[in-house]
């Protein structure tokens, strides 16, 4: 799988080629080599996430794993769950669950300001919506957001269902089909 | 992305009716329903082969194990 896109390189505002591909050993190696130490010494809420462990643990066919590559380095990672969730907005309808989404530490203004590239998180989120359409889920997408990411998902017009006691009290968000259509139309 | 291959399958009338019912209920194409069913079956098979058990939980939280052959 390979989907090409453009990211904005912040230092010169150039639009540079990038691609979303299936997550592989190369991306996990990048995580271990370039991401991990910078995240672990930060105060980011996801600093303890171990992508190697997630990759090995979430190996059943209901998971899809993706990476964003740009200038030969992994810029973002994402895991989707396809089958085990049901929509709250449209009860009993299938929905894609965005399990994990990370951008590289150098793409986060909270760690490096200005960041290296812009658009990684949006590109991965948009791919998740497109996968929902491809699965015939009509763009429905849900997730539990870390507090620092709540604003990002609110801007994408996801519905905020409030804190979920079954998921570490993280807020549960859901993207309705009509909003998903708007996101894909913008492409 | 995710290139697909066209195949033909034989279904009994009852199986075809069930597929149509699920397709209508979930507002998904018959192909999408079958693809989801395959993934779910593979998920359950894989987890059970790792020694895990498959349970269903009733509305009053009573669990019953599903035995698969």
Provide keyphrases for this structure.
heterodimer; A: 187 residues; alpha+beta; 9-stranded mixed β-sheet; 28% helix; B: mainly alpha; 49% helix
What is the total tally of β strands of chain B?
2
- What quaternary form is this? heterodimer
CATH class of chain A: Alpha Beta
How much of the sequence lies in strands of chain A comes to 25-35%
Order of strands in the sheet with most strands of chain A? 6-1-2-3-4-5-7-9-8
Largest sheet of chain A: 9 strands, mixed
Instruction: Give average pLDDT of chain B, whole number.
Output: 91
Helical content of chain A (DSSP H or I, runs of 4+): 25-40%
Q: Give helix and strand order of chain A, one letter per element, not per position.
A: EEHHEEEEHEHEEH
Give the overall form of chain A. Answer: globular
Strand content of chain B: 5-15%
According to CATH, the fold-level topology of chain A is Aminopeptidase
CATH second-level architecture of chain A? 3-Layer(aba) Sandwich
Q: Which residues of chain A form runs of ≥5 with pLDDT under 50?
A: none
Strand order of the largest sheet of chain B: 1-2
Detailed description of the structure:
The complex is a heterodimer of chains A (187) and B (69). Helices cover 28% and strands 33% of the residues of chain A. With 187 residues, chain A is of the alpha+beta class. Chain A has a nine-stranded mixed beta sheet with strand order 6-1-2-3-4-5-7-9-8, sandwiched between helices. With 69 residues, chain B is mainly alpha-helical. Chain B has helices at residues 13-26, 30-49; strands at residues 55-57, 63-65. In chain B, α1 (13-26) packs across α2 (30-49). At the A-B interface, loops of A face α2 of B.
Secondary structure elements and pairings:
The complex is a heterodimer of chains A (187) and B (69).
Chain A: E1 2-9, E2 14-22, H1 25-40, H2 51-57, E3 63-70, E4 73-81, E5 96-103, E6 117-118, H3 120-134, E7 141-145, H4 150-155, E8 159-164, E9 170-175, H5 177-185
Parallel strand pairs in A: 5-7
Antiparallel strand pairs in A: 1-2, 1-6, 2-3, 3-4, 4-5, 7-9, 8-9
Chain B: H1 13-26, H2 30-49, E1 55-57, E2 63-65
Helix pairs in contact in B: 1-2
